Amino acid sequence: MPANLFEWENHLSALREMLRGATQGRGRLALVSGAVASGKTTLLNTFAEQAIESGALLLEATGSRAERDLPFGIVRKIFDNGAMPADVRSEVIALLDGNALESTAAGRMHVMSQISSALLRMVDDRTLVVLVDDVHCGDDQSLQFLLHLARRVRQAKVLIVLTESPRLRQEQFTFHAELLRQPNCVRMRLHMLTESGVAEALSGTLSATVAARLAPECHRVSGGNPMLLRALLEDWRTVGEHGEAQQRPAPGEAFAHAVLGCLHRGEPEALEIARGVAVLGDARSPRLLGQLLDLSANAVQQGVQDLHQCAILEHNAFRDEVARTAVLDATPATARGALHARAARLLHADGASALDVARQLVSARQDAEAWAVPVLREAAEFALVEEELEFALRCLERAHHACAPGPERTALKARLVSIAWRIGPAAAESHLPELTEDAGRGRLAPRDVAPITSYLAWSGRLDAAAGAVSALAQSAATGDDPAMTAAVSASAQWLTMLSPPLRDRLPTVGTGTTGATAGAPRDMADLAHAHAAATMSAVLTEGQADRAVIEAERVLQRYHLSDSTLQPLAVALMALVLAGRLDLALSWCERLQGECSSRRVPTWQALLSAVRAEIALRQGDLQVAAHQARTAMSRISVQGWGVGLGLPLSTLIQAETGMGHYDEAMALLEQPLPEELFQTLPGLFYLRARGRCHLATGRYHAALGDFTAAGELMGAWRMDIPLLTPWRLDAAETWLALGDPGRARALAEEQLRLGPEDARLRGALLVVLARTDELKRRVPRLKEAVEILEGGDDRIQLAVALGELGRAYRSLGDFNRGRVLVRKAWHVAKTCGADPLCRELMPRHADPGELAAAAAQPGQGTTETQRDVEALTEAEVRIAVLAAHGNTNREIASKLFVTVSTVEQHLTRIYRKLNVKRRRDLPAKLSDSSLTGTV
């Protein structure tokens, strides 16, 4: 098929040739057909300009569907023309207005003959060109006149050019056939642009290279429709004007308007059918489309064919989503809603999938009927598989609204909350009050009790959660529902674990995974909550770390990650952390993070990142801890974290403090907190983090207050377990900072007596005790602490112990061993990112080459001095700087943890390399204050 652009040029050339023939007295007739927006009107207008330039008398008219019932409407337009001589116009108008139109067919034929004669009298001196666009929209009388005129112009200087749609009305077939029977009639057909035609059209305004690059995509989107192509190019240029890089043309506002323009220019059913296709998504079922629009199958097929011909549709669907959206947006809201609602009923009756029916129900924006409730519920579950969380929520919202009050409605609300919580706990907030009321009325299903209780507690509604569990417990006691009894027991265990002050307000429960409900049927959700709560209780109240590790692994192995098991799995991970099994906790946490890394589950990812941050913090990896904590807090809003905020926030505060970012840590302390936080376990984490920040920044009494408060809470809750918060250790370090080693020692010894035997904690306590001991007893304690900590995971605490041991050896005069241990401590602290600890261990320590680099800066000395300094080793640089500052050999040995003999040997080599004889001859540049900090 030739490209439409060439086709168009050929047709224009043929019309010019026909005009020349008409000028010579050989009357011609051209019938140009083509789909909407194929270029018929453009062809006609271009030829009209050329006809005027040739001196022809041009008479034009355009058919209109609105005037189809107006007799002789097109004829009146032809003669209502400024180029028409006034006398002829008056004569014709008089004939049209005369009573002859009301007479017989023979009378009307006589009038048409008179009008034709009036026209033909004007061609003696000039060629007459009659152009009628969209003749298929003309009235019957005008069509009869044009056919009558066509029969009389064969030997006249007349050219008649008509354009029509490929699809004709029934009454137009005779007119069309009679025209084509005329020997002087030429039929022309305009097609859509091919891809090469699109490239040729684009090259008129773009470079050949750009046109060739854009042509394939432009042809795909526009289908070669010239009107759509121009609009697409306009959108592309508009984007370019706004400075946005746009490699590929993308349909926009102009394209959407062009689509609607094409539809309005077509047959009346075209727009209606396009709306139906937009609602259903495609036109694969003419029967269904016909039922939707109340049209016959034949009318639908014809309309769909028209939409394909004008390139609006391709393969029974819109070429681009912008076109479909434009059609839907242009449909009045009431009509659109009615179409979607009707489509839903038709699809449901036709056996369509729940997802397809639900999409129509949701788009209808109308109250759903009772039959739609199970469909919407099923569709929501399928949508979750496809990660369409917002659509799943809308399905459940419609189902909930359509459902009558009762257990089923409550179950829908509970499922809605679980999905909303997956997106972000804040999204579920507005639904929790209604669920609380339903729980009080006993409407919650057993499977929903534990998850909803945990959501209420997370949001800080501790009293509401306790009240709901108590109400359900009373309801279960009066009934015979073992499943509900088990669910209530699990929820009570969960709340007691999270917020120990609630213990006295909740039903009595056992400490195992079954408790008082042994043998009762259990739902996976309440079983997971009960199992995880019992696991944490083994750590917090019973001090059975080994059993807690076993139970935690069982939880992690037994339950897969889901909305209802996320919190139990996170609690099991924290049980491993508190029990000191960071290796297992890290392995399981990374596995769970991998499971949800590619899914749209922000809350899942946030909670697991918070746990991962706590693991990193306890391993001494401060940078990873800070990164994971910030990631957790960025996944969901601060408001959405509820009382859970205590976990990532406390980790982040401690990590920033450990890295020496005190301003950042203090800024985090300004974060508003839920009032209920300090009634929960995360509140203890926060108190410790705030205390450690105060301790590091010299606010010792504030720190002591936080540590003591944590201890008082743990005592009141009957879970004074240092694995949770070692408040005595923290307080002891604070008393040391305050200069009261006696109180520090008392707290450390008390904690050692209480146990439990945790390696990390015992090592830290031994360091505190060593700092309160006399020198001769300090080294054995520190050696034991180092030995213990080397077998553990906490590298920062190991660095502290190594540094203390190094200082102890130094005090005893063993400089070599002290130097090695302090350097080892420094390196361990450096890998942890603990810069304040690094500065404490070796205040003047520098990386190799720092001094030489500083000496090489402009204004820092002569070129000769720079070369001399660069010749020194790292150790020689440090000793040279200290010597230049006037330190004695013994002072240098003490500061660098080396022997006096080592200092003397280094100085000998330094003097030789710098070509000096004595200490005072060392280059002045070595004592410059800008270099002091490098040592």
Automatic annotation (TrEMBL):
Family matches, as Pfam families: AAA_16, GerE
Keywords assigned: ATP-binding, Nucleotide-binding
Domain HTH luxR-type: start-end pairs: 865-930
PROSITE patterns: HTH_LUXR_1 (PS00622), HTH_LUXR_2 (PS50043)
Domain of life: Bacteria
SUPFAM superfamilies in UniProt: C-terminal effector domain of the bipartite response regulators, P-loop containing nucleoside triphosphate hydrolases, TPR-like
PANTHER family per the UniProt record, alphabetical: TESTICULAR SOLUBLE ADENYLYL CYCLASE, TRANSCRIPTIONAL ACTIVATOR DOMAIN
Protein name: LuxR family transcriptional regulator
